[in-house]
Amino acid sequence: MAKRSLPDSKAKILWIEGRRVTNPSFVPVLRKKGFEVEKVSTGKAALERVVKEDHDLVVVDAASMRTSGKRICTALKERVNGLPIMLIADSETDVAARRQHANVVLNLPFTARKLINRMRPLLPDDEDSMLKAGPIWLDLDSRQVRCHGKKSALTPRMVRLLRMLIDHKGEVVDREELFKKVWRTDYTGDTRTLDVHISWLRRALEKNPRKPQLLKTIRGVGYRLDV
3-state secondary structure string, 139-150? Predict the structure, then answer.
């Protein structure tokens, strides 16, 4: 499958920009490049929108609001786990601290090209090869999964396992059924290797693999993806 360039991907961006912008707004440029940009002027409005719409990225233009943006970023993370956040700042002071609150910190001034280049790693490469479930992005072509801001490479079998769980998200999938479909065999006498692969997936998906919040074990039955 041929990859489309990012500007044609129609990525959906929530852009938070203050009403009094002293620097040129990048929103018109991004829309011209093919991005779907929804603009709001306050952190409160952004928090209302992220729970109603499925955005690929939130850009917090803190420079336009004369704030550090830390509180807005923290509130966004609490509201929607795993949603990538870019923070635009007007100086390089306390950059390390700001990076604790956003996936990418971009300091003014910068060009539209630099903005798009910094956005690219946070966005899905190709919608046709990408599966999404909550904070989980599964790239079928590159066999990579992105969740909670981190990327992990998967084996083909792990991809098939995660894809099946995504296809049945919110449902309990029987252990034997998972084993049959993923390992492509009718023999289900020993499914312990399934448990090992589940543990590997949890390392890629969970903030704390020992206390999984996404990939749940349903004792005596199987597994369920809660997103």
Answer: ECCCCEEEECCE
